[in-house]
C-alpha cells in the first residue's frame, strides 16, 4: 500500500486501469461475467492449473462465492479439492446460507472453527447460526474462550434480533476525556479496537450510552476540546431483543449510519451499522416475494427432493382450497349440464377476481412491511379497495358481459356474468386489503398465508355468484 | 448540545430517559404509535393548539411524514394550514413520492424552490424528479445559479442512474498532502465541506480518483505521514451512467460504505454512500412484489379513480388470457355436457399448475434480482424446476386421482385427472423458471409480465390436458 516516490508509476498504471475498469463495468456490471465463469470451467476441465491460477488471481471473495453459487456440485467439489487455498473465510460468509450450510456441514468441526475464528463476531455468528445444534456445539469446543464466549452470547439472543445482528467490536470512550486524549488512545490501542469504525460511543462509568461522536466531528475538533462538548445526544438506542425488521425500519426512517445496542439495564453491548441493515432489508424483501408464492428462503440452492418436499406443503394447502371451490361448482351440476357455456366462462370470473384481489393484497403487504399501514388508516385502505373493486368490476362487467352475450348468443348469460364480475371484484378488493391487515393485527405474518385465504374467497365467491345467478336466471 | 459541568444533570436525566425510551421501543417499535396519532387528531378536531404543540413538539421529520402519510386529505390540509412551521424541508423528503408530488404540485414554484434550496443536492434531486416538467422548470428558475446548475446536471443523467443517486458534496484531497495539512484543511474549510462525511477521496490534479482514506485511518495516523502512504487503492469506481440496481449490487456484494462516482473520462463527480443504496434496495424489492401483482409504485397514495385506472390495464391483459383459457374449455363442450364432474374438477388442475408455477417463478425472479441466476446456471435451474414439477406432479396426481375417483365414483376420471396433473405441473415448473430467464436474457424486466405468460400457459395446458384426455377416455 505504501509507496516511496510520490506520483510516478502508480499514476500511469492508475490511468490505464481506470479506462479498462470503466469499460468493464459498463459492459458487465459488477458481477462475475458468464464468459469468465466459462473460461474458468474450461480451464478446470483441461486441468490447466497455470491458466486457472491466472483466472482466479484477481477475484474478490464475493466473486469466488458467486462462482461457487453458479457452478454445479461436482465442479465445486473439484475446486475445494484443488484450490483450497483461494477459499478465504470470507468466501464462506459471502455464500448463500443454504449452500454454505451444506458445505460447512461436510467439513470437520475443527476446520469450521478455524474459519470462524478469522471473522468478525457478527459475521461468525451468521456463519454458524443455521448449522445443526450438535455440530454447532462441536465447533464451539474448538474455539478460544474469547471467541466462544462472544458466539455463545450472540446465540443467546432471540433469532432475528438486534443482539444477533450487532457487532461486539466498537469504540467506547468516557465522557470526561478530551479530544486529544481520545486521539492518543485510538493511536495507542490499535490492537483493542476494530479495524473499521465510523464513530465513537460516549459512555458513563456504568456503560450507559450518553451519546455519539461521528469521526468527522472528532477530526475537526481541537485537541483541547472536551468530549462532552462535542457529543451528539440525539441517539437511537436499540434494545438487544428488538426484531431485526424493526431495526431496519429505524435506519430507513431516520437515515442514520449506526446505532448502539443496549441490554435490559440500558448498558452498551454492541453496535449495529448500516451495512448489517442492508442484509436485513434484502432478506426481508426477498422473503416477502417468496412467502407470497409459498416458497422458503434458500430454495434455489436446495436439492431437487428437498425442494419438492418443502414446496409440496404449500401445494397441499392449496389443494384443500381447490377442492372447496370444486365443491361449490359441483352444487350447480344441473345448471352446467343445461348451459355448458357456463363451464367455459366460470374460470374468467374466478380468475379476474383472483388477479384484482392479488393487486390489493400486494399493495397492503408492501405497505404493512414499510409501516405505512396501521390501525389509523386500515379502514380507509379497505374501503378504498372496495371502491376500486366496484369501479373496475363495473368496467369489466360491461366488457365481459357483451363479449359473453355475443359469443354464446345469449343476453341473459351476459347479464349474469356481468353481475357476478361486479360482486367478485368488490369482494376481492375488500378481502385483498382486509386479510393481510387482520393477520398483521393479530401478530401473524401478512405475507405468508394471505394469498391462500384470498384465492379461496375469490374462487368460491366467483363460482357461487356466477353459477348461483345462472341457476336463478337460466336454470 | 454543550454543557458547562461535566457529569451532573444530563446524567440523571439520561438514566430516566433511557428506561423510558427502552420501554417505549419495546412496546411500539420505532414508529409513531396509532395511539399518538389518535391523540393528535383529537386535539386537531378540538382545535386545542396548546395540546397539539405539545404532542407535535418532539416528533422527528420522519414522524411527521409518517403522520401525514396516514391521516386523510382533509386532516392533512388542516395541518398545512395551521402548523406550516413544523413542516421542515426534510418532512417533504420523507413523504412517499406519490403523496409528495401531489402536495408539492399544489404549492407555488417559489415555495418549492425555497424547500429545495435547504436540502442536500441528492435529496433535492429526489424531490423534484417526478414533478411535471413544466413545473420543474419553473422551480429551477427560482433557484440560485449554484443550486440550479447542480440540479440540472443531476437531471441530465439517465433515470435510475448512479449520477442521479450521488451526492455532489464530498471531500477530495490531493495525494501529495500530509495528514497534518489535511486535518488543518478540514478544520479551516468548514463552510466548503459537507456536514457529514465518512471518508476522504484522494485525487490527482485532473480529479482522477487515486484512492480513499477512511476517517478512522486518518484519525489514527501521525500528522507527519503522507496521504499517499495511507491511501487505500482498492476502490470501486462507479461510472455515472451505471444503473442504480447495479450500484446496489456492488454495495451488497463488496460490503463497502461508500464509492466515488466518475464521468466518462474517469474524473470524480460525486460520491454514493450506503444510505442512498438502502433506499434503492427498498424500492427495487418493493417494486418486484408489486410488479408481479401488476400494480404500480405509489398505488397506496393514489386517489380511487387513478388507482382503478392504473390497475385496469393489468386486468385487461389478464382478461385476454382468461378468454384464451375459456376458448380451450369451450372446445370440449360436448364432453363436459356428458361428464359434468369435469367442470367441477378442471379448476383444480389449472389452479394447482398456477400455484406450482408461481413458486418456480418467484424463486427465479428473486434469484435474477440478486444476480444469482445467469447463463451459467440457467439451464440447470430450468431442469431442476421440471424435475420438481414431475415429483410433486406425481405426488398430487396420486392424491387428487384417488379423491376424484372416490368422489364421482369414476376410476377413469381419477386416472384422467392424475395424468393431467403430472403434465401441468411439469410444464408449470419448466415455464415458471424459463419465462423470467428468457425475458431477462432479452433485456426485459422478469418481474413485470412473467405471471401473465405463466398463468396463460398453466390454464391452457391444464384445461387442454384434462379435458382432452377426458374426451379420449370418457368421451
Model description:
2 copies of one chain form a homodimer. Chain A is mainly alpha-helical. The first copy, chain A, has 3 domains: 31-165, MgtE N-terminal domain-like (MgtE N-terminal fold), CATH 1.25.60.10; 172-291, CBS-domain (Roll); 303-474, SLC41 divalent cation transporters, integral membrane domain (Tetracycline Repressor, domain 2, Orthogonal Bundle). Chain A is built from 23 helices and 6 strands. The first copy, chain A, has helices at residues 8-28, 34-45, 49-57, 61-70, 73-82, 89-94, 97-105, 109-116, 121-128, 133-141, 145-156, 162-165, 179-188, 215-220, 227-230, 244-254, 274-293, 304-330, 333-338, 341-369, 375-407, 411-441, 450-474, and strands at 172-174, 199-203, 209-214, 238-239, 258-262, 268-273. In chain A, α16 (244-254) crosses α17 (274-293) and α18 packs parallel to α23 (450-474). The radius of gyration of chain A is 30 Å and the shape is globular. The model of chain A is unreliable at 1-14 (pLDDT under 50).
Amino acid at each position: 500500500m505504501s509507496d516511496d516516490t510520490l506520483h510516478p508509476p502508480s499514476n500511469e498504471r492508475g490511468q490505464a486501469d481506470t479506462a479498462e475498469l470503466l469499460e468493464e463495468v459498463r459492459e458487465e456490471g459488477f458481477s462475475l461475467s458468464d464468459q469468465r465463469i466459462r473460461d474458468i470451467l474450461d480451464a478446470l476441465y483441461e486441468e490447466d492449473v497455470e491458466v486457472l491460477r491466472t483466472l482466479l488471481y484477481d477475484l474478490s471473495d464475493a466473486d469466488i462465492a458467486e462462482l461457487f453459487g453458479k457452478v454445479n456440485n461436482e465442479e465445486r467439489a473439484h475446486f475445494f479439492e484443488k484450490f483450497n487455498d483461494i477459499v478465504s473465510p470470507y468466501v464462506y460468509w459471502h455464500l448463500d446460507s443454504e449452500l454454505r450450510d451444506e458445505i460447512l456441514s461436510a467439513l470437520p468441526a475443527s476446520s469450521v472453527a478455524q474459519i470462524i475464528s478469522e471473522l468478525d463476531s457478527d459475521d461468525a455468528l451468521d456463519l454458524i447460526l443455521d448449522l445443526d445444534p450438535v455440530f454447532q456445539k462441536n465447533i464451539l469446543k474448538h474455539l478460544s474462550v474469547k471467541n466462544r464466549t462472544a458466539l455463545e452470547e450472540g446465540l443467546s439472543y432471540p433469532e432475528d434480533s438486534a443482539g444477533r445482528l450487532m457487532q461486539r467490536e466498537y469504540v467506547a470512550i468516557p465522557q470526561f476525556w478530551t479530544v486529544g486524549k481520545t486521539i492518543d488512545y485510538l493511536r495507542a490501542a490499535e490492537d483493542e479496537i476494530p479495524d473499521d469504525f465510523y464513530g465513537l460511543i460516549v459512555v458513563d462509568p456504568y456503560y450507559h450510552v450518553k451519546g455519539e461522536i461521528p469521526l468527522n466531528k472528532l477530526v475537526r475538533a481541537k485537541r483541547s476540546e472536551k468530549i462532552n462538548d462535542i457529543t451528539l445526544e440525539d441517539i437511537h438506542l436499540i434494545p438487544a431483543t428488538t426484531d431485526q425488521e424493526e431495526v431496519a425500519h429505524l435506519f430507513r426512517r431516520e437515515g442514520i449510519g449506526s446505532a448502539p445496542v443496549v441490554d435490559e439495564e440500558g448498558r452498551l453491548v454492541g453496535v449495529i451499522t448500516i451495512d448489517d441493515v442492508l442484509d436485513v432489508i434484502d432478506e426481508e424483501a426477498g422473503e416477502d416475494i417468496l412467502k407470497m408464492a409459498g416458497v422458503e428462503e434458500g430454495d434455489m440452492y436446495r436439492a431437487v427432493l428437498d425442494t419438492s418436499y418443502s414446496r409440496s406443503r404449500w401445494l397441499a394447502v392449496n389443494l384443500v382450497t381447490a377442492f372447496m371451490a370444486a365443491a361449490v361448482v359441483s352444487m350447480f351440476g344441473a345448471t352446467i349440464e343445461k348451459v355448458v357455456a357456463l363451464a367455459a366462462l366460470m374460470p374468467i370470473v374466478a380468475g379476474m377476481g383472483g388477479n384484482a384481489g392479488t393487486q390489493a393484497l400486494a399493495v397492503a403487504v408492501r405497505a404493512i412491511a414499510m409501516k405505512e399501514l396501521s390501525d389509523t388508516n386500515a379502514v380507509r385502505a379497505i374501503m378504498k379497495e372496495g371502491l376500486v373493486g366496484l369501479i373496475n368490476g363495473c368496467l369489466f362487467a360491461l366488457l365481459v358481459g357483451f363479449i359473453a352475450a355475443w359469443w354464446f348468443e345469449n343476453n341473459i348469460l351476459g347479464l349474469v356474468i356481468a353481475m357476478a364480475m361486479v360482486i367478485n371484484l368488490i369482494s376481492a378488493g375488500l378481502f385483498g386489503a382486509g386479510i393481510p391487515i387482520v393477520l398483521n393485527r393479530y401478530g401473524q405474518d401478512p405475507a405468508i398465508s394471505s394469498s391462500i385465504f384470498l384465492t379461496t374467497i375469490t374462487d368460491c365467491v366467483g363460482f357461487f355468484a356466477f353459477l348461483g345467478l345462472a341457476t336463478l336466471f337460466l336454470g
